[in-house]
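Box 3.1 A note on notation
Throughout this textbook, protein chains are presented in two layers. The first layer is the amino acid sequence; the second is a token string describing backbone geometry. Keep the layers aligned when reading.
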Amino acid sequence: MKFRDYRFNLQELAGATGDYGTLLPLAIGYIVVCGLDPTGFLVMMGIATIVTGIYFKLPMPIEPMKALAVFAIASSWNPSLIYASGIAMGIVWLFIGATGLMTWFARITPKSVVQGIQASLALLLAIEALKFIQGEWILVIISIIIILAFRNNKYAPAAIILLIMGIVIMFFQGTLGAIGGPHLTLPHPVSFSLNQIWDSLVAVGFAQIPLTATNAVIATAILIKEYFPERVVSEKKIALSIGMMNITLPFFGGMPLCHGAGGLAGQYYFGARTGGANIMEGIIYIILGLFFAGSIVVLFKGFPGAIIGAMMIMVSIGLLKFAKDLKAETSVIPLIVTVMGSLLSNMAIGFVAGIISHYVLKRTFPEKLDES
């Protein structure tokens, strides 16, 4: 079915599942370790996903802010501090978007560094995939064969086959028996203090900003140009989207959210081409949050990790193809520096190191550093 700029079919639904590998582990950590209410968590994420699909009219992933999520889970933050951190990120990204800082930031970032971030993300996704696999290589190989054989199939997309296969495995393992029946629960207003907004910024919020700028904004905008050359989505528009999500959703239990190049690559790889993927995905989140909040951890933890790992590996391979078309030999150096910094520390460090190496080379060999 097609409605204006949106398509609603199995391919779009399959594409909607493409970024689950990023979501599931952090969602489980937020709910189990930090005690986040799964109803507010999922319903707010569903609303954000639907609104984003309508706003951009393209597939656009909604993901947890990774550095902030990892720090919050490792530090066992209480829910009020997590909600406050979301508001903090909303204020920051509305300011960055509205003032034009994001546009300037994107303009001074060379193509080699952006591709270095994409290559780093691909490698990090592959490394993360190994954690899901846990030695289940037979299931991984079967999943990869299914992906290669059915990824572009209109009537049986690979991601839908894998989803059904995962549910069947859960059934035979007895995992589905632990899932209770539907029970309506609603999101409720939450509370936090102004001091917690500042505390969250100091603890990890400021460190999250360059990560969001590189992966969630700049790399995502570049990837949109690669996938949808007829559609122009500015870095400013993406930054404002992140700001609006985070300034509103935490009041009813939403976590700090952003977009992401890895999630977009996953959605596109498995078939998403319009905002219809977001709308369908958002509806799924809302239904899970409203009626199955009490069983959501069982569902998330019980799904076979090898299937998710296989999906992440194939997405990472797809991301690497964008790092192969630099024209100048010296442009490869900032890319390598960016990747090394990202893998040895984090993507913010990799980004800064890549920028520095680019401008040092540009000053030293101006005639050789052509990235056009």
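The chain is about 70% helix and 0% strand. The mean pLDDT is 88.
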